[in-house]
Sequence to fold (327 residues):
Amino acid sequence: MAFTIKCKPLILFAWLVLLANSYHVAASTIGLPTRDQNPILQPYYLPTLGFASQPGWQYSNSLFITNTFQTESVNNETLVIDAESYRFEFAIAYQQNDWRLSTKIPLIFNQGGSLDGLIEGWHDFFGLSDGGRKSNPNDQLNIEYINNGQTVFLQDSSTNDIGDIEVALSYRLAGDEKQSTEISAGIELPTGSIETNSGNEAIDVALWLVHQRSVTEMTELYGLIAYSRLGKGGQLGGQLNAGTWVAQLGAEHDFNANITGILQFDMHSALIKDSELKAFGNSLQVQVGLKFRNWIENHNLDLFFSEDIYSGSAPDITFGIRLSSRD
Fold:
């Protein structure tokens, strides 16, 4: 059944639901720092959840492993994405009073990979469509976008490089033991490379609002709403929209003192203008995970995976792990 996302109204509705509900506020990190890991769109700035309002130093290490096989052909556009991507992010922040300065440094690896067989088994086990995977060779790298007979994007060899570094300044607008609201402004610096598809060699800027609220002693809701202004860089620079709306909405529920379940939805509006391809349009995906508290002293360990709800609007699956400091 076709599913059309009315992205802006959905984002605003989700935000109102979050604000309408009313005992602890998360320690160190909130939610999951996930984003659309489409390898073509990785160079562009999509703000994510990160650190909670907490004095002093905080840090986290995150690894995302994404396997994608997708083919689309609509009118004059043809897209093939057959790739496995690894994205490692080191994030660090320092907060004093209501102000926090943070930075995120990504390393991006694009390759043919080795998980195609595992993903095919995953789809078979859950009865999901393989999207034509089994008719193509496993573990190859082939990313190609053709528009009006012209090859706009092409990558068929493995790359690894530092990505665009993010720097953000956040200010806590309000907060107590039950809730917290903060506003942030960020910039993504052109430290990555067009040649390795790790950056767009342009400056992106974003503004976002984060709210978190405890609704019971065991359950917490949180959300982010953002607007990212995209620099006209990268292989797709001439086809970018001026900006994109981003939202994350989720809940954490404590099963006990050491294990927390996480359910999160990620959304963004179309990055590419005048495209009818799902991979370049409005995106909706779900994140499911577990947080293990203090299994490593003074740290939280998050294990999670992502699936596209609106089929084709994000990669097939992303596996993630994050190790973060806690109070």
Summary: The helical segments are 7-20, 116-126. The chain has one domain: 7-243+271-290+320-324. The chain has a mean pLDDT of 86. Residues 39 and 85 are 7 Å apart (CA to CA).
